Amino acid sequence: MSIRNWPLGERPRERLLGRGAHTLSDAELLAILLRTGLPGGSAVDRARESLAAFGGLRHLLDAERAVFCTARGLGEATYVQLQAALELARRYLLCRISRGQALASPDEVRQFLQLKLRGLAHEVFACLFLDNQHTVIAYEELFRGTIDGASVYPREIVKRALALNAAAVIFAHNHPSGIAEPSQADQRLTQRLRSALGVVDIRVLDHFVVGEAEALSFAERGLL
Question: Under a CB-based contact definition with an 8 Å cutoff, are residues 54 and 74 in contact?
Fold first, then answer.
């Protein structure tokens, strides 16, 4: 049955307008973006089928283009639409943490870093550069590696921080294994970076390790 034939109080768009987006399920939100269903079914049915095929929303959004486009009811146009929505979410969160103090919104910092780094097949080491008010100056992915790691050069980080006139930094890197637990090498690297940046009076405020289901904070763990 078409969503147009549903009672007004059950239609996803009307519920979003009346009660807020947070009240909708993943399938209902996805249905709003998909807009149309498949023959014999509604957009919500199509969304539920797509979510089931990929095992959930995150796996759907993280799917490679070729895999995504071969699924029933999906294709390149839908892939482009969802990737655009995902990138808007990333940019929105960056705007949010750039407008105010990054340390005043640790959950938004964590969400942003997860959107940027989770699910990558290779390791990426990134940095949020902050001014003396802890407002974000820039987010940059500085080093890329293989599934086993990335080579990180403290001298290059110091040079970049000085070029941006940063007063503090927040580091982040992903674990392609999906496990967010920091390794001994991660901890040694963080201490090396703290020492190198400390020479030029730049503080390391945190280091996030992004895994499959969470982003672990060194500061919260007491590792800084």
Answer: no
